[in-house]
Amino acid sequence: MRFKNVKMAGASLLLAIILTGISGAAQEVTDSSKLSMDRIFLSSELGGDHFNQPRWIDGGESYTTLELAGGAMEIVKYNTATGLSSVLVSKTQLTPKDADSPLWIANYEWSHNRKMLLIFTNTRRVWRLNTRGDYWLLDMDSGKLTKLGKGLPASSLMFAKFSPDDSHVAYVSKHNLYVENLNSGKIVQLTSDGTDDLINGTFDWAYEEEFFCRDGFRWSPDGKTIAYWQIDASEIRDFLMINNTDSLYSFTIPVEYPKVGEAPSSARIGTVPATGGKTVWMKIPGDPYQHYLVRMHWTPDSDGFLVQQLNRKQNTNMLWYCKPKTGLAANIYTDRDEAWLDVVDDWQWVGDKYFTWLTEKDGWRHLYLISKTGDEEQLITHGDYDVVSIEAIATATNEAWFIASPHNPTQRYLYRVAMDGNGKPQRITPIDQPGTHKYTIAPDANFAFHTFSSINTPAVTELISLPDHKVVRTLVDNARLKTALEKLNLQPIEFFSVTTADSVTMEGFIIKPPDFDAAKKYPVLFHVYGEPWGQTATDQWDAASMWHRLMAQEGYLVISVDNRGTPAPKGREWRKSIYRKIGIINSRDQAMAAREIMKWPFVDSSRTAVWGWSGGGSMTLNLLFRYPEIYQTGMAVAPVSNQLFYDNIYQERYMGLKTENLDDFIKGSPLTYAKNLEGDLLIVHGTADDNVHYQNTEALINELVKHNKMFQVMPYPNRSHGIYEGINTYRHVFSLLRNYLLDHLEPGGR
Description:
Helix content is 16%, strand content 35%. It has 750 residues and is α+β, with helices and mostly antiparallel strands. Helix 7 crosses helix 8.
């Protein structure tokens, strides 16, 4: 399955991870119809089940999954059509010689011939994810289990992957590239200049956080060459976080962090023979400190590779065809936008001469087919709708399978279309399953793993046949969670749309108290995010909604709406109208929507609260400061108070360059309006937040003190942006938010 890192769009992502990973005995429940903090954070009953790391094999005729057996992991093989299963890799096979227990598999990869298994274990966190650890190789014929990277530090290997002929594995350790011969065990070091500042084969903090760049090297299809990124972060200044609690004397933690206006890291791409030798650097034009090299893709014939190059403002994406032996680079395609361009992830080869490309140049995100010389271009999808993502290209039938939702931006469905550009898309997802659908399609496009959920229905994962979408078997039904939900006294979450005085129509959801009485008036808790990184009003199951449902049981209406600028499939104009206006247009949309909602007969306009995390924390501050006549209470978690304090890649993408429009950054920052605070404010922040620095909260404190504004602050020592490290932390955060709201905004209808 494909997973992408996302920013903290509210607390949804992290809470979902925590709830689904809870272990241990459930707490005693005295009333099964009521939620409580203990039931949400200490019990396993509200956590969902998962289909664990499936891998299609044998062209889709079979698949493997990770399953627990006696507390240890095993890999089980299933026949796709019949469901017959067998243990393919037992826990005995996964137990190293002289070890007491088998390896715990964090990730695994089959060799192309499926005679070897690469196992990732003993992992360590690098910024957001655990991307370094140990790699072991299991020979399926002999049963021999070998640890790779002999002589290298423990838990230091990153992104190990087989060569195309399965004779070698390449990996990164301590910012250098290595290739290991799987027959002889010989290790060849391809680079030797790697340091904390000069990074080979992986990326620095900013590239990882904002472009999802982690794995920084690629085998050529013929296995002779490796192309890799080199990031020079030596000119990036360190932001120092301070640790006051883990030793007698405090110490600083440096993070290479380019703030708005600071030059990015230098980036270049080189090729090196897999047997070792001199690196050839690609001659991609431009100042390496004023561009971003964000994606790389070899041609099927290994003749060259394509590189996406974004300019500093990220509104031009130049596609370069690079020659690995000479370093020559030719521009074959250029995409431009008056606002910004997103990195194109949905590009893959169709045959040897064409690749897919997504662009919004006609006002909607559509699929194109482009020749590798750039002189041919064919529009594949037509119409006033957005292609959300490409799920598969079926070469046998010459079809593209993609996700879209032309009629409801809160939902997602599967479509297919002929690649000749002449056909109309055919919806594959059944009409009678409104909600959000996710797919992992088999290589032959005859089967898929299908996960369906809605905002009121926990996820169900099935094996389906394609294109008829018939269920072959149910893989995860979440029956335990569904049974627990049926016992809860909850109102179904409802969707609505609201049109403001500015003629902007927004989608939203509302959670009502279980004993809701339309003749009474209730307080509102608005949940906000509102930046281009994520939607909040989506018709899919969200484990984080349990806390919102708890607040509804406490007597609040919980409401969230998506303003202009959020990444809803509503066309380019919707998404990019926020350019250079973050903090202005999005907060106005939210406030104007709130004013319309205040007109509803069951809403008490004198009791209005708002809360959000990260960008939602910034939104909370802007709403409380800019529209004090609407919002009486605000809870801002990990907020950006001054846009100039945030990283250059994210903020400049959506706001431009401060040398050109500094005033926009100031006008969009909550700090500018802090003097207007009238209501109750709680600020929550982790002091070791490497993403949104605690500096933001300290600067805000100073500004509020300057204007004699009263407020409350809760710092969490040495916690990062997610504020989850340490025993009981996450439960404490949400208990704090609940208690603050109950203390400052009377619940219940009246």
